[in-house]
Amino acid sequence: MPKNKDYFFKLVELGKQLRNLHLLNNIPLNNTIAKFIDKGGGDYSVIKVQYKDNNVSINDKQYFENVPDIVWNFYIGGYQPIQHWLNDRKKKKYTLKYDDILHFHNMIVAISKTIEIMEEIDKIIEL
Predict the structure, then answer these.
(1) Whole-prediction pTM value?
(2) Residue 47 C-alpha from the chain's centroid
(3) Could you give the maximum distance between any two Cα atoms of the chain, in Å?
(4) φ and ψ at residue 4, rounded to 5 degrees
(5) What are the angstrom distances between the C-alpha of 7 and each of 2, 59, 110?
(6) Ranges of the chain whose pLDDT falls below 70
(7) CB-count exposure of residue 95 (10 Å: 0-12, 13-18, 19+)
């Protein structure tokens, strides 16, 4: 419990921000972190999910560039949402559509912002 009411209300505000991020509400459209790369001839199918050098491959010709390691390895509860989302599509032999790529970008932004907010919360709790 925070030591004064100002800290309490700051935590309430940060909690609202977290809730909206986890529901993928109010994700800034111009705040993309990763970029989808097609080296040519890719069919958008999620065949393999591999993370290397901040890139997440979905097949031999297509990948998401600039996915931060801290986001890729981030846990919520007992699972890693970015990895879980892609692996679920791999199991179903799913082909990504434009909205799926946008959704994945939004997840990356949401998790990145979640990490920032968690750091703010930790600072408040330490006061």
Answers:
(1) 0.87
(2) 20
(3) 59
(4) -140, 165
(5) 6, 47, 23
(6) 1-3, 28-31, 127
(7) middle
Measured in residues, the chain has a length of: 127
- Hunting for tokens 């004064």 — which residue is that? 4
Sequence-distant contacts of 22-28: CB under 8 A, at least 24 apart: 22/76, 22/110, 22/114, 24/103, 24/106, 24/107, 24/110, 27/106, 27/109, 27/110, 28/109
Helices (H), the chain: 5-22, 69-72, 81-91, 98-126
Place of tokens 């990356």: 108
DSSP per residue over 52-73, as a string? ETTEEESSSSEEEE---HHHHT
Q: Which residues pair with 118 in a beta bridge?
A: none
The CB density around residue 81, as the number of other CB atoms within 10 Å, is: 18
Asked if 6 and 78 count as a contact pair (C-beta separation under 8 A), the reply is: no
Supply the pLDDT for residue 127. Answer: 66
